[in-house]
Each structure stands twice: as C-alpha cells, then as structure tokens.
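Here is one such protein, fold included:

. . .
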Amino acid sequence: MNRTEHPRAWWLVLPVLLVVAFSALIPLMTVVNYSVQDIFGPGQRVFVGSEWFREILRDSRLHAAFGRQLMFSASILMIEIPLGVALALAMPTRGIGVSFTLVILALPLLVPWNVVGTIWQIFGRADIGLGGALLRALGSDYNYAQNAADAWVTLLVMDVWHWTSLVALLGYAGLRAIPEACYQAAHIDGASRFAIFRHVELPKLRGVLTIALLLRLMDSFVIYTEPFVLTGGGPGNATTFLSQYLTKMAVGQFDLGPAAAFSLIYFLVILALCFVLFSFMTAGDER
C-alpha cells in the first residue's frame, strides 16, 4: 500500500515551529548585536565589528578550556556508549526483573544536576564521605579538591553514574524493537552470540546510538552545574570547561561583548561537532 504525504499536515506543526523560532531567534539576535559592540552602559555603545571575535580566538585560556572540554566529552563518550550498550544487552527481557531493572536504571536520571554535584562532593570527601574514606583506607592519597587527576577521575565517574542509564535505556528500547525473526534466522544459520550482536543487533541500533551520541555530546559540551558544585573549576583551572569560562566572562567580569562573541563561537563549535558526528553515524544508511 502506497502512502502519500499531504502538505496540509505541516499546518498542524506550524504554530509550534513559529513559537520555537521566535523564542530562539530573539535571544540569538540579541547575542549577535552584543558581539559587535563595546557596551559601556545603558545607551553607551560603540560598534567594534569583529574585534571581540579576534580577541576570543587569540585567548590562550580559552584554548586550554576548549582542550579540556574536548578531552572530557571524548572520555565520557568512549566510556558511556559501550557501557550503556553492554547494560542494555545484559538486562532481562521478561519477568518482574524487567520492571525492577528499568526503575533502578532510571533513578540516577531523576536526580537534579546540582544535587548530583553535592552528592559526589560529600561522597568523595575523606572526612565524611564513604568513597573518599574508603580510598584513604586503601592507602590512596585521594583528594579531588587539591589533585587535578583525582578531580578529573571524580568528574568522569560522576558523569558515568549519572548518564550511562540514558544510553542503556535507549539501547534497551532499540533491542526490544528488533523483530524476533531476525534472531531466529541468525540461529538457523548457526551464528554465534558475537556474530548476532555484530550483524543483527548493532546495525539495528545505529539510529538509537546516533541519538545517544548526539545527546551525550551536546550535554557534555555544555556541562556546568556538576563541576561547578563539585570542584568549582579547580584545583586551579584543571576542571574549568567552556561553560564555566563563559559564565565567568559574562557574569563575573560583565564583559558582554566578548561573552556574546564567545557564545556564538561556542554555538557554532557544538553545531559543527554534532553535524560531523551525525553525518558519520548515518553515512551507511544511504548505502
């Protein structure tokens, strides 16, 4: 049966598109306006063109924050995606264990971001936290407030604990959507468990994994609350990411012009990374 698309269907979503476009374009145009002006006060502005963009692109502190951001995002993607898929494969497919597992996995996602940072801030302290006290008892000189490596490991573990469940739930939904006939055909052909995963499950999970990768990339690239609560960007600038650098520039120093230029560059970088990742993940669909 052939289906025909009716152009009038777009009228149903047109109001939503207009509202979203309006709410997005107004702030964006305001940021663009600030990025080309030097603002001294209400009514006191001087047009500076691309000066703020050139200044931001030459900022060595921004380069360092961008490098830390790339390292953090790449690290959590390499950990959370395989771990989430492994959890999805290990989850039960029938019985009461399904509901129990889904509830347990969903719990970390229900915790607000600021609470996550507070939980791990207390958990990692050696004087009152279980995790920090355990590491000290094992002979480790663990201190996330003074040691940059410890701060990084704590941030990574915290993010893995908080967001791996999202990947696992998406992967589980994708696995349950695979027709049983595919598994039956693989068993008839004598395929091993790894062969089933490689040739049946993994190709069917391409769309789900693309969504998970994009969500985690975008969220990790704008992470702010958790590292701010846990380490405050320290020790030193070891965990100062782009979002914290931008907030300090806009709110702490009140440099609206450079902060607006930085925001636009920040937005374009995230957009470019998401486009590259999406193109790579969907490259095989056309073939």
